């Protein structure tokens, strides 16, 4: 029997559950988990007018995944779109529809807020995520550049 995944917004009481998942997410991408980064990101999520929001995937009473997103203005259209920054599901909870459910709820939010699109990036070699993303959207023709700044 497939478990029932509930999607809801993160609340203050979810800090510990979210923190464990976010540490795993950071490790997945080769980042050293840091209390300072955790605290900053959580404060962005919890601040009512903060820059980021977070959806949680819950199976029973266990938080098994998250999607962190934000609104972005686009100068070429004068409109807003949604940017999914982070999506993660605990390995033991994968393949039960949690990531799909998170993306569906995010799409609902985007439509409600009248964002004209959703965007997200993932690592080129993240085949698992790309299988899901290829079902939902299409890869853009934009190339992403980074310039790392010291200090």
Automatic annotation (TrEMBL):
Residues 5-151 form the N-acetyltransferase domain. Keywords: Acyltransferase, Transferase. PROSITE patterns: GNAT. SUPFAM superfamilies: Acyl-CoA N-acyltransferases (Nat). It holds the Pfam family Acetyltransf_1. One of its GO terms (molecular function) is acyltransferase activity, transferring groups other than amino-acyl groups. InterPro entries: Acyl_CoA_acyltransferase, Bact_Acetyltransf, GNAT_dom. The keyword DNA-binding does not apply. This is GNAT family N-acetyltransferase. It comes from Thalassospira lohafexi.
């Amino acid at each position: 029997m497939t478990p029932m995944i509930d999607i809801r917004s993160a609340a203050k009481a979810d800090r510990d559950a979210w923190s464990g998942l976010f540490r795993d997410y950071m490790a997945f991408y080769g980042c050293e988990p840091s209390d300072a980064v955790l605290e900053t990101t959580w404060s962005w999520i919890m601040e009512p007018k903060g820059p980021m929001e977070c959806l949680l995937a819950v199976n029973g009473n266990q938080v098994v995944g998250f999607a962190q997103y934000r609104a972005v203005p686009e100068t070429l259209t004068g409109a807003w779109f949604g940017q999914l920054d982070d999506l993660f599901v605990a390995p033991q909870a994968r393949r039960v529809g949690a990531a799909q459910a998170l993306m569906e709820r995010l799409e609902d939010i985007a439509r409600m807020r009248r964002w004209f699109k959703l965007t997200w990036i993932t690592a080129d070699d993240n085949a698992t995520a790309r299988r899901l993303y290829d079902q939902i959207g299409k890869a853009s023709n934009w190339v992403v550049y980074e310039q790392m700044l010291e200090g």
